[in-house]
Amino acid sequence: MRLYDKPAHVLYDMLVNKEITSVELTQDVLSRIDEVEGDVEAYLTITREEALAQAEAVDKKIAAGEKISFLEGIPGAIKDNICTKGVKTTCASKILEHFVPPYDATVMTKIKAENPVILGKVNMDEFAMGGSTENSAYHVTHNPWNLDCVPGGSSGGSAAAVAAGTAIWALGSDTGGSIRQPASFCGVVGMKPTYGRVSRYGLVAYASSLDQIGPLTRDVTDCANILNIIAGHDEMDSTSSAAEVPDYTKALVEDVKGLKIGLPKEYFVEGMDPEVEQAVRTAIKKYEE
Questions:
Q1: Cα 152–181–44 angle (5° rounding)?
Q2: What is the pTM of this model?
Q3: Active site includes 178?
Q4: Per-residue pLDDT tens over the stretch 121-157
Q5: Catalytic pick from 93, 158, 178, 241?
Q6: Domains of the chain
Q7: Is 25 helix (H, G, I), strand (E, B) or coil?
Q8: Any catalytic annotation for residue 158?
Q9: What is the DSSP letter of 86?
Q10: pLDDT tens digits for 32-47?
Q11: Which one of 6, 79, 110, 121 is the catalytic residue?
């Protein structure tokens, strides 16, 4: 297994134990981009040189015996409707083709404080209005598991990058499913935090009373750790919650005994895979008994 296949928490341990360097990890992910990006097309902007410089800085810190934070030195990508100082933020629209924000979104300020490696900005439905990432003004993003299929949207670039190994983690935004749906389509973990849990300052709005920024990751552990980083009150967002931020990793348990998963009967539609339908119907029947 190459490094790009591993979740962030495993890579963090490898960095701390000096089994790998951030430069090696970053080069591996960049090589993966070179291999598959021509087919997947998850990215709108790739900041290759900046990423390698960030990785080198982290390696120097580790070599000096300094402690590193969870995301430090680990490559990730940012949905292109989240403002990034000095890096284009187009919202996948020709209207903002040359827009370079003079400031960072609050989530970027928090993320950058962790010293991760930022690989660039990823594709989306234009202004987040869509559910397939076919509606970008630049190009269509493809599902890395099947290039003939869509990755979902509007955070399709974020989900496709994580699934393809062209990013270890990513940030997306969700108004009515724009993190959760592409995460499902691409087989990764995606979470829309409770409204107000994460600052919207610097997120180009679609529907301000619904928009939330959230993580897309390889597993739930990574998702919890990144939510720890980006959650919290922000005076720049009057709708952000002042409630205390818990440690979300405390909710991670291996024992799922007694857990029940429900699927409403109304979700069954014509054309559903027969084996899947039968399995679900059997489970429902058993539960009803």
A1: 40
A2: 0.90
A3: yes
A4: 999 999 999 999 999 999 999 999 999 999 999 999 9
A5: 178
A6: 3-253 (3.90.1300.10)
A7: helix
A8: no
A9: T
A10: 999 999 999 999 999 9
A11: 79
